[in-house]
Each structure stands twice: as C-alpha cells, then as structure tokens.
Amino acid sequence: MSLVEKRSVTIRGHRTSYSLEKPFYDDLLAISAARDMTLAALVAEVDTQRPREANLSSALRLFVLEQAKRGVRQT
C-alpha cells in the first residue's frame, strides 16, 4: 500500500486530482465536517486561494497544517 493516495475531484466543472498521505486526508475530512461542507467544496475553496504556481496537493497539505496550527481540528 502506498503512503500517498491519489484522489479525484471536480472543481468548477473541471475534473482534477490530488495526492495526499492518509493523515492529511483524514484531517481534511474532519475540517470539512467541522465546517459542515462537502470535501469537494473545501478542496475547491483551497484551490481558489492557492497561488497559481502551487500545485493542489501542496496547497491542501499547507492548508491542513495551517488549520492544525490554529487548533481548528478537535480530536
């Protein structure tokens, strides 16, 4: 089993993919649940805020890290 899993999502009608390690993916799911939004909607939000030169996978990891620093995810 790979440490990184590739997942697909549709953002504004465009199919794309991102690759995340399970802990990042799990935290992303928890953040979306805490915000009462779908995972796809959260990924789309991060996508709109990332610099165009950053890839989506990296932007998602940095987003999860920033949320963890802020203490957003409650275990």
Automatic annotation (TrEMBL):
Record's keyword annotation contains Ribosomal protein: no
Keyword DNA-binding in record: yes
GO molecular function: DNA binding
Pfam families per record: RHH_4 (PF13467)
Keywords assigned: DNA-binding
Lineage top rank: taxon: Bacteria
InterPro entries (UniProt xref): RHH_dom (IPR027373), RHH_sf (IPR038268)
Residues covered by the Ribbon-helix-helix domain: 5-67
Protein name per its UniProtKB record: DNA-binding ribbon-helix-helix protein
